[in-house]
Write the structure tokens for this entry.
Amino acid sequence: MTALVPSEQRMANQIAANLAHVPAGQAAEMLAGHIERFWDPRMRARLVELVDAEADDLHPVVVMGAGMLRKSRKK
């Protein structure tokens, strides 16, 4: 049986894959900016929870971008 991937993880990984042509640091900034602008706050919080829980198969750019989201929420 295949485990279901949370939609926030799937979408964030897709965004990261679409940014593969950009250096990782810049891609993480772009991903975080996209998520900040277009995702519902609950979705952003769920993604950060998934990263904190070290969910399987998170793209490294998603992990970096989630860290940036976390920092921007504390400002």
